[in-house]
Amino acid sequence: MDHSEDVDDVKSSRLKEIQNRIGIVFRDEKILQQAFVHRSFLNENQSLDLEHNERLEFLGDKVFGMALGAFLYRKLPDVPEGKMTQIFGFMSSAEMHTQIAEELGLGEFLLLSRGERREFDSGNRARIFIIANTLEALIGAIYLDRGPGMVELFLQNTIFPRLEKVIAGRLYLDSKSYLQETVQELRGITPTYEVVTEKGPDHNRHFKVVVVCGDRRIGEGTGPSKRLAEAEAARDALLKEFKIEFSNVKTC
Q: Which residues fall in a coiled-coil region (predicted)?
C-alpha cells in the first residue's frame, strides 16, 4: 500500500507544525521526520527510503535519563538518593511521557501502518507505549540536530516544571509507600501486612491481606499474588483511614 502522500505531508507543512509546537527549529528535518516513523509503517512501505525511529528512541531514552538525573541532583540538594530514585522513576515513566506527548499532539504526526493507526486511534494500552516512545525518539532527534543544550531547554518547557506537583502530591509513590509515609508522618509508626488467607492451586493462587497499624486492622485487599494484595490493602487503608483516594493513574 502506497503511503507516499503521508510522507510528503510530513516532509512539508506538518514538519513545520511539529517545530512550532515544540519551539525548536531543526537544521536537518530528515532527523525530525525519522522520529515519527514507526516500524509498522515501513513494513507496509518497504520501497520508501526511510528509517524507523527505534534507534532514536534508544538514544533519547539515555539522553533524557542523564538530563533528568542532573536536574534532580541540582534541584533537590537535600533529598536522599532513595527518594530521588523514586521521583526519577515516576518522571521517566511511560505514563509521564505519554502525558507530555499527548499535550503536544505528537500522535497525529506519527507514520503508522493502517492497522496500527486504527489500534492507536482506538486508545488502547499500546497507544501509551507507542506515543511515549515517540517522545523519546523526538528527544534523541533534538540531541542529534541541536545538541544537549536544546534538549535541556525542551525539557525545561515540558517535563521539569512538573517536579513541584510530583513532590507535593507524592505522585512518585506506590500505594504501600504512600501509606507508610502517611502513617509515619501522622502516627509515628510503620504499618505492617499480614496474609489472612491463601487459597487455590499454584497456577491460580488467591491471597487476602490486611494492613495493621498498631493494634488495628485499617485495610484489606485481595489479589493473585501477595504483592498485589498488599498494594490493594494499602489503597483500602488510605481511603478508609485517611480519606485519600489513591490511583495508579496519576497525572500532573
A: none
Q: How many domains does the chain have?
A: 2
108-143 pLDDT tens trace: 999 988 888 888 888 777 788 899 999 999 999 999
Q: Of the candidates 179, 145, 146, 148, which has an alpha carbon nearest to the alpha carbon of residue 65?
A: 148
Shared domain for 128 and 236, answered yes or no, is: no
Active-site residue (options: 61, 145, 232, 236): 61
Does residue 158 share a domain with residue 38? yes
Q: Indicate whether 182 and 146 sit together in one domain.
A: no
Instruction: Judge whether 247 lies within some domain.
Output: no
Non-local (6+) Cβ contacts of 197 within 8 A are: 206, 207, 208
Look up the pTM and report it. Answer: 0.80
pLDDT in tens, 162-172: 999 999 988 99
Q: 62: domain CATH number?
A: 1.10.1520.10
Binding site for Mg(2+): residue ranges? 57, 133, 136
**Which residue range forms the structural domain that includes residue 203?**
175-242
**Could you tell me how far CA 9 lies from the centroid of its own chain?**
29
Enter the DSSP assignment of 197: E
Angle separating helix axes 81-91 and 54-75, nearest 10 degrees: 140
pLDDT at 11: 62
Whether 61 is catalytic: yes
The answer to whether residue 78 is catalytic is no
Query: Diameter of the chain by CA atoms?
Result: 70
Annotated binding site: 57, 133, 136
- pLDDT class for 1, splitting at 50, 70, 90? very low
Is residue 250 assigned to a domain? no
- For 4, the enclosing helix (H) or strand (E) is helix 4-9
